[in-house]
Each structure stands twice: as C-alpha cells, then as structure tokens.
Amino acid sequence: MVRRTKEEAEATRLQLLDAAERCFREKGVAGTTLDDIAKSAGHTRGAVYWHFENKADIFEAVCERVTTPMQAMLGDLAADPGTDPLGFLRNDAIRVLRMLTDCERVQAVFEIKFCKLDGGPDFDRLRTRELETHSRCLDMLEVVFGAAVRIGQLPLHLPPRETAEAMHAFIGGLMRSWIERRDFDLQKSAPWLVDTFLVGLRNAPVPDPAS
User: Fold this and answer.
1) Start-to-end C-alpha separation, the chain
2) Whole-number Å distance between alpha carbons of 143 and 75
3) Which residues have a Cβ under 8 Å from the Cβ of 101 and sit 6 or more positions away?
4) What does pTM read for this prediction?
5) Nearest-5° angle of CA 94, CA 100, CA 101?
6) pLDDT (tens digit, 9 = 90+) per residue, 68-111?
7) Helix H or strand E segment including 81
8) 95 Cβ neighbours under 8 A, 6+ residues apart
9) What is the largest distance, in Å, between two alpha-carbon atoms of the chain?
C-alpha cells in the first residue's frame, strides 16, 4: 500500500474540517455524527479517527482555524497600549465587528458556538478552554482601560476590570445578536455603536459605594 504523503494527509484533514463545519452548522454539534462528517468529506470513518480523537476534538480544530476576534484585537494593544489606547481600541473593536460580517468562516464558527453548540460531556475541555480565553481577554482589556485612565482618556474613578467586563459583554452581545438575527447592518453601524459605548465610559458616573 502506498503511504500517504504529508500533503495528502493535510488535504484530507482540511476536507474533514470543512465537512465538520458544514455539518455542525446545519445539524448542530449533538446532531452531527462522525459518519456524517466522513460522508460529507468523501472519506471513511477511519479517516476521521486517523486525524481526530472524537467529535469534541474536531470541533476544537474547527474553532482553531479562526482566530478569536477579541484576542486578535487585544494581543498587541495590551502588550503596548501606546499614547492613544482608547483610539486604538475603538478602531480594533470596529474591525472585529466588521470582520464578523466580512468573513464566512468567522460567521460559521460563531454561529456554531452561539447557536449550535449542544454537545455533551466530551465538551468539558472545550468549555474550560472558552472560560480561559474569556479570562485572558478580560485581563488584556483591563490593561488597556487602565492605561487609558492613567493618561486621562477616561475618568480616574472608572474601574478597569468592571469596564473590561462591560466591553467584552458589549462586543460579544453585538456579535451574537447579529449572528442570530442579522436584522441590522453591523458593517455600517459598527463605528456608531462603538463610539456610543466609549462616550458612555467617558461620562460614567462615580460609583456609589452605598448602592
């Protein structure tokens, strides 16, 4: 039997991932079987097991093909907030929202995550990883907002961690709303939406410790 080349093996793996993405999007994660993925890719179930441990492993690989937009936005900025952290954050937030509307693969992954992720105990590892990703994003946002407070772009009383939570929920909520309904023009309204949020931060009231 002729041994498969690395190129052939990688091509098979990509075909399986493309097929899994389609199946997860159409049937949901729980409703998709390994046979479904193999058949959609034009391969055998054995080919699936050659490349992946189980369905959760396949889903994780599907997600890894898309860099989490929030992470992509924050990595460099948190490492060096520069002299205009809020301005860079504004531009990156707009880019992230528009990335969702522009890239079919990003749409597919987030549609599966938001609407089709109905897996079982095999997905405990994935859920743990998502929580870790969420925590890292909050840590990076906290650094950026802390820098913005220090240079006077935001009020001194603004708590960076709580502000990070609000920003993460705001961007994630917009992404989820657009994926689920697509009844508003996120591409066009992204700058206004982000500016509205940031203006609110600049005018945030002083927290009342008694409330």
Assistant:
1) 74
2) 11
3) 107, 178, 186, 187
4) 0.81
5) 95
6) 656 766 887 888 888 999 999 999 999 989 999 998 888 998 88
7) none
8) 73
9) 76
